[in-house]
Amino acid sequence: MVYLDNAATSWPKPESVYQTMDQFLRRCGGNPGRGGHSLALAAAEKIEETRLLLARLINAPEKERVIFTSNCTEALNLGLKGLLKSGDHVITDCIGHNSLVRPLKKLENQGVRVTRILPCSEDGFLSPEKVEKAIISETRLIVVTHASNVTGLIQPIDKYGAITKKHGLIFMVDAAQTAGTYPIDVQASNIDLLASSGHKGLFGPPGTGVLYLSDRVELEPLREGGTGIFSELEDQPQTLPYKYESGTLNTAGIAGLGAGIKFIFQEGREKIQSQVHFLREHLNRGLAQIPGVILYQPEGSLKQAAVVSFNLKGWEPAEVGAVLDQAFEVKVRTGLHCAPAAHKTLGTYPQGTIRISLGYFNTLKEVNFTLEAVSKIARAKAF
Ligand SMILES: Cc1ncc(COP(=O)(O)O)c(C=O)c1O
Questions:
Q1: Domains held by the chain: number
Q2: What is the residue-wise DSSP string for 344-368?
Q3: How far is the CA of 152 from the centre of ligand 1 (A)?
Q4: Which of 267, 297, 327 is the last residue of a domain?
Q5: Who has the most CB within 10 Å: 5, 41, 95, 257?
Q6: CA 198–ligand 1 middle distance (angstroms)
Q7: Sorting pLDDT into bands at 50, 70 and 90, what band is 301?
Q8: Tens-place pLDDT, residues 260-295
């Protein structure tokens, strides 16, 4: 079996993630902050360890600015809905995942103005000049997708960060496809809100996500409730991170996420990045040689995350995915990948693409096997 759907969720996880979660549930199964007994304290220690690891990974100035969420979708919802009010103006890209597109659409229906900027036809980037030109007096936020989950295109976030700083705006980045594999420094890039899944490049289990917020941002929480602190108050505590973390956390998941981030530090993020880039280059080259393959590839290898989209002439993407799965045991994703706007921009709407997303545990042998499988499928319906 070959798993090539790491943009959806990474699999397998490092062995230490499985072991940490198993041991955590057996040995530290208390509820952090909900009691002074040893099991609750042990759980709280693990949660704070993961928070610190995440803060180190993205260079957050304080670990309390790292909020645990259940996925990137919740992190994006918290950042957008917690910040924006009717009358505010937002500038965004046209390649976003529905977890960015839909909350923005809802906010737009409630009176927030949204400017969506088409990527440049030459390089696919969101032109910094166009972004700056779109700023008006009501502009509050610029929010961009760091890497597209359809084509892998990596946007130059530093440039948008510099613009937001110059104009005193808030800058938000969806780093679902980049965190853990690509360098992210929230302070150097002037990022005020960074949303990510914990279960993709950070190697945590599903049900983990994260939102970083800078000291320039004050958000309304999405929910109020038990926080384990200031229990005597009826009002929601304002202390970070508790203000945004009401209810019992996914403690075992967060423990696993901590093990995932430790794995990244141990292996070296650069090594992980160069391994997936090496495989992606090999895949791109191999696909380009198969007759009938249409590759949707950004120009320049440094601009592409380990996500490759293609189509096969004469085939529906879903058919190719089904044959890859059933005849070859190769697991890829087909269709719109929850990002219809990106496909409209790319010209692949509504059928979508076949998406191969590589992970650190994939091998050259697996990529070659997949290329051979795609070749066979292409030959089966020669045109
Ligand atoms: C770019 C991007 N943003 C957000 C998400 C949503 O992530 P999650 O499933 O953790 O909510 C995804 C998921 O694939 C994504 O690719």
A1: 2
A2: HHHT-TTT-EEEEE--TT--HHHHH
A3: 13
A4: 267
A5: 257
A6: 10
A7: low
A8: 999 999 999 999 999 999 999 999 999 999 999 999
Is position 94 annotated as part of the catalytic site? no
In this structure, the answer to whether residues 255 and 314 fall within a common structural domain is no
CATH number of residue 335's parent domain: 3.90.1150.10
Give me the residue label for tokens 């992980």: 272
Q: Which atom of ligand 1 is nearest to the CA of 148?
A: 1
236 and 280 together in one domain: no
Question: How many angstroms does the Cα of residue 59 sit away from the middle of ligand 1?
Answer: 22
pTM of model > 0.70: yes
Is 223 found in the same domain as 183? yes
Average pLDDT over all residues of the chain: 95
Task: Look up the domain containing 314 and give its range.
Answer: 2-10+268-380
- Name the CA dihedral angle for 31, 201, 154, 5, rounded to a multiple of 10 degrees: -120
Among the options 72, 94, 120, 338, which is catalytic?
338
For a ligand 1 pocket test, name from 72, 144, 178 the mutation site with the most ligand atoms within 8 angstroms of its C-beta: 72
Q: At what angle do helices 72-83 and 98-109 cross, to 10 degrees?
A: 20
